[in-house]
Amino acid sequence: MAQAVYAEEIELHQTPDWADKPYSLQRDPLWRVTKTAKDFKDFWFYHCDHLGTPQEMTDHTGVVIWKAQYKAWGECKVEQAKSDFFENSEIISNNIRFQGQYFDGETGLHYNRYCYYSPYVGRFISKDPIGLLGGSNIYAYAPNPVGWVDQLGLAKTPTRTLQKNWKNYVGCKHTNLDIHHGFPEEYAERFKNIAGIDVNNPQYYYNLPKEKHTKSPGIHTNSSRTGQNWNKTWGGILNQVEAMNLSQAESKEILEQRLRALARKERIGKHNATAVKGANFCQLQ
């Protein structure tokens, strides 16, 4: 991960209002203006641990300009900036903490998209937006901060629960790397309201092999090509189905069809729990 630094403000183009007139390519300033990109004042590189938490920053010459030490739940215990290493130099700051978190200097809290997180107590200060769907403790961050991340501030179903559900449904233990939801937990409430779908129904689980999903312990998706756009894609699909004003049964049928189509596209259909169960895999072991 890297960060480009400019010495002056970045000039942006005025976007015309096309509400009362048709779009015109010839009048669009983005196509009419040609400018040379300004040079960077500096270029900083982040050096992160296995969870993606920044440990050090270096400039383009490899010199350390910022580094930090953290307590177990993300509180920055020791922070050193460039001015500490070299006299009369500018102060370099970094507010990125655990994945998905941004440090707020005024409150001492970490902004975690859907809610604020307190690194001092290792808990969110407001209830989990998805309620009990994220677990019985609605203020919890993750079971273990050394092996888990919660990038969105929405706790995931524990791995052991997924494994138990898989075994009960399929008839035997999973054999590949890990088990994942076909319908993203991030939209659990929307799936339930629109189509009466429980995202934790094991028939929608996928047991992905290593080549389809490479990850560190506890990190859910986004580390492979398959997972990078999965949640984003489903957000768009839900918007489309919601706008159709269908019954729950009709919406469920469409969403299940889309899930099967996406699985075929990514070539993970055979790893679905229903497919594994239908292939009598457990009897062949």
UniProtKB/TrEMBL annotation:
<protein>
    <submittedName>
        <fullName>RHS repeat-associated core domain-containing protein</fullName>
    </submittedName>
</protein>
<dbReference type="Pfam" id="PF03527">
    <property type="entry name" value="RHS"/>
</dbReference>
<dbReference type="InterPro" id="IPR001826">
    <property type="entry name" value="RHS"/>
</dbReference>
<dbReference type="InterPro" id="IPR050708">
    <property type="entry name" value="T6SS_VgrG/RHS"/>
</dbReference>
<feature type="domain" description="RHS protein conserved region">
    <location>
        <begin position="45"/>
        <end position="77"/>
    </location>
</feature>
<dbReference type="InterPro" id="IPR022385">
    <property type="entry name" value="Rhs_assc_core"/>
</dbReference>
